[in-house]
Each structure stands twice: as structure tokens, then as C-alpha cells.
């Protein structure tokens, strides 16, 4: 399914000749040709949408149309199986995981209606990242047993589309509200130029408001809260949190107010930031070495390293730094992972407030919270421990209770092997100054660690 240079080369020149007679193909539609030299009966062609953050919902629905149009063409031509490639491409800036959600849920919705007409749908991937994404998401939409079904209920995003798999926006839905009670209005006198029949006039006079109200079922209208009213209440809560007196603001902890985000809102927020991050060149943030990938810990979980002393708040664009963090963490948060934080010599630098940390957690999304195994903090200070305690109380206890304090490098290496970490020289020097008298000697030049040997007194 869908055209590509490799497909045309394998099919032979006949496919290109027939495609030239189709008159093009609009985004979201599908057309069919013969397969020629390919081991298939037909080839279905479609055009995926370009992705732009501003038109996120439109791109999702256009991608959903692509998959649904291909399945409709499949049934129209009496075919029962299809192999579907990834219609979304990096060239069109479409984030891979959100697009995979759209693809799988659209196929799921279509099969619910036409399960007797389709025997098999095969998702074909060409990269390791796509394969990993589909292996993880397919059991959520197609659980094979009761256990997978229970996991799917907990992990599925809140927005799984409508009956066709398309994204729905409450604010754009047509709402039905009760007709307000109105006083009886007397018809105005008719001018001679108005041509109204006597029957129509009598019908108008006899019409009662009660008759119209009887056609509107109040129980139907009250099934869900008015989205406009819900959004207004949310804005009022945000405005109240920002304008009102806040103990956290008074103490300099940042803005910790505002309503909590739902799962769908966090998913959408993360997708928007990830799309922006993939479209920008963030090399100046990478060169600061604040956040970088390590190896794996003792149990094979990937490690992300954070260096506190490199976080120079006075010369750092925080918004671009957040985008870089989202981009770097994205491959890790899909499965269990570990964070190693070097607080060595970081107490001298200004640090962001708790409100910023809360916002960062919301942007990273719930996968970060669920898959984070531990945060190993090396050389913690009393001030840092107090900050982490405040994070547990005011931001997110589930995440910040995973902090493990590590006083020396040798202790850290019990959790993460030395060869799996790239450690700055000043961390070794700090560890030598703090722990050198406790039986641990670290050479900052060779980074070789030994136990201090003491001679027995004579």
C-alpha cells in the first residue's frame, strides 16, 4: 500500500505507466492499480498529510482518512487482506508514535464494522523505531487475552477517536440546548405586499411552545456537560490560581496552581512539544552537556545523565531546553529507564523553581512517570534534599519518591557500572575532596578508583 520508489522498481515500468493515468491522488483519498511484478493482486496508493503543530487535529484526521480510504477500496475490489506501510514520513514532519496511534485505532474501528469482509491486516515497518512502537501499541488496541485487555484499559489514551477513529473536539460539536421560555408574541400585521396563505397563518397561530419543547428530550441534552461551560470554568480556575495569593509563590517556589491536566491533555501537550523539538536545531543546548545519554544500569535499563553544575540558568533559554529534554527523553520513556543526576558543585548555581519542574513533568507525559525506575542523586546537599521533599509534597509524590541518594561514586557504581557512564572530571575531583578521607581514592586524571590502604601502627 502507498507508492514509493522501491515499490515502482520492484513492480516494473507498468506500474508507473498506469499511475500516470490516474490523474493524481488527493491527500486522504486512495486509488488502486494492478500489481504487475509484485506478489500481490492490487496496489493501493494514497497520499499522507503534512504535519504542522498549528493544524494537529486536521493532520490526524487526514491520516485517518488515508487508512480508512485504503480499507474501503480493498472491500470495493473484493480483496480480503492488505499489507499497510507507514503512510506518515519524517519528510512531512509527522511524529511517529501519535501517527501509529491514529493508524491502529482507525483500522480497529473499521474492522469493528467490516470484520466479516477482511481476513487480515498486516502492518509493515521499515525501521527499528517503528517496529518497537507497533509492538508496544498493537496489544493496546488488539488485546489477545484478559491480561492484555486490563493493561490496555490503563494505558490507552483518553482520546481514541470517534466511531471512525477520527479525533473529536468537544468545542466543535453541535450542541442541543433547551429553548428558553419566551412570552407569547402576537403576530405583526401583514402588509399587502406579503403573500401568506390563510392556512399557513392559521398554522402559525396554533403552534405552541409546549409542542416544540416536547420534541426536545432534557435527559438527552444533560448527558454531558456543556464544553463551553467546562472550558470557561477551567479558565476561571487558572485565572484564580494566577491572581490569588499563593503560599508557594510567596516562598519563591513558583506557580503550583492551576487545574490538573487530563490524560488526553497531557498526551496532546507532549505531542506538540515533540513536534516542535523535531523541527528545530538544538545543538547549542546539546553542547552544554546538561542532559545526555548514558549506557545501561545493572539490570539493562537505559540511563539518562543530568549534570546540575552545567545548568547555567542565567544564560539558558528554558523553553529551548525543555524542547531538547523532550526530544532526548522520547526514546527512553517508552520503556523502563533510569536517571543519574550529578549534583556535584551544583549548589553554587541558580536552579529552576518547583512550578517549572511541575510543568516539565506534564510535558514529558505519563509514560515518563510510569516507566521511570529510579533517580540516583550523587553528592546530595541538605538544600537539595529539602527541595526534593517539597517536590514530593507539592508536585508529584509518585515520581520523586523514586529518588535514591548516593554519597559517593563507588556506591553509584553498584547501580550503574562505571563503563556505562561518561562522568565529568570535576565530579571525580568533588568526590575525592568529599570522600577521600573515607577510604576512597579517585584519580581525576585516570578516573581510576581504589580503596585507601592504611598501614598498621607499630
UniProtKB/TrEMBL annotation:
Transmembrane spans: none
Gene3D superfamilies the record matches: CRAL-TRIO lipid binding domain (3.40.525.10), Leucine Aminopeptidase, subunit E, domain 1 (3.40.220.10)
InterPro entries xrefs: CRAL-TRIO_dom, CRAL-TRIO_dom_sf, Macro_dom, Macro_dom-like, Macro_GDAP2
SMART domains assigned to the protein according to its UniProt record, in alphabetical order: SEC14
Organism name: Picea sitchensis
Boundaries of every Macro domain copy: 1-142
PROSITE patterns per record: CRAL_TRIO (PS50191), MACRO (PS51154)
CRAL-TRIO domain location: 280-427
Family affiliation: Belongs to the GDAP2 family.
Protein name: Macro domain-containing protein
